[in-house]
Amino acid sequence: MAFPKVGNMAPAFTLLNQKGEKVSLKDYKGSKNVVLYFYPKAMTPGCTVQACGIRDSKAQLSRLKTVVLGVSPDPYARLEKFRDKQGLNFDLLSDEDHKIAEKYGVWGLKKFMGREFMGILRTTFIIGKDGRLKHVMDKVNTKTHHDDVAALIKELKLNK
User: Fold this and answer.
1) What is the C-alpha separation between 128 and 10, in angstroms, rounded?
2) Radius of gyration (Cα) for the chain, nearest Å?
3) Active site residues
4) Which of 77, 85, 87, 93 is most buried, by CB atoms within 10 Å?
5) Strand order, beta sheet including 133-137
6) Please, what sign has the CA dihedral across residues 127, 132, 135, 141?
7) pTM to 2 decimals?
8) How many CB atoms lie within 10 A of CB 15?
9) Stretch 67-74: mean pLDDT, rounded?
10) Which structural domains are found in the chain, ordered by start?
């Protein structure tokens, strides 16, 4: 499965957030850049480190006119527990049937401890205010993800 092409419109979606409220990509068009990051599972070590880095960078990302949306196949009730436990300050979206992950090309074969299974391939998409895909980060370091994203937004001059 391939990622959407940089320069094209980002695939549209509407998913439920941690409170069971609908969130759509179109909600941000014209006003905010969107960092859409896909992660395998709430409350796991790598996903927690990544989410907490984003939490701690919210002010910087806001100054860059950017919102962050995290997407996983977890049910929204689990996302609410994750958000509350870690004090997260951004929306987590539930993609239980992984339809959006498939649209973005991030549902694929994974290997862990000698076992193969289908799951989320940790990937981040930077979407401009115009709704177009500006960058794909397919090599994500969970510890520096928040800084890497902020640097890319500045480099791509999306903070105007």
Assistant:
1) 9
2) 15
3) 47
4) 93
5) 22-24, 14-17, 91-94, 66-72, 33-38, 123-127, 133-137
6) positive
7) 0.96
8) 20
9) 98
10) 14-155 (3.40.30.10)
pLDDT of residue 37: 98
Given pLDDT bands bounded at 50, 70 and 90, which one contains residue 155? very high
Taking the C-alpha atoms of residue 134 and residue 66, their distance in angstroms, rounded to an integer, is 13
Cα distance between residue 92 and residue 22, in whole Å: 11
DSSP code, position 98: -
Indicate the residue type of 6.
Answer: V
pLDDT in tens, 24-63: 999 999 999 999 999 999 999 999 999 999 999 999 999 9
* Residue 156 CB contacts under 8 Å (≥ 6 apart), including other chains: 126, 128, 134, 135
Whether 64 has a pLDDT exceeding 90, the answer reads yes
Q: Which two tokens stand for residue 9?
A: 């419109």
Helix ranges (DSSP H) in the chain: 45-56, 58-63, 76-86, 99-103, 145-155
Angle of helix 76-86 relative to helix 45-56, nearest 10 degrees?
60
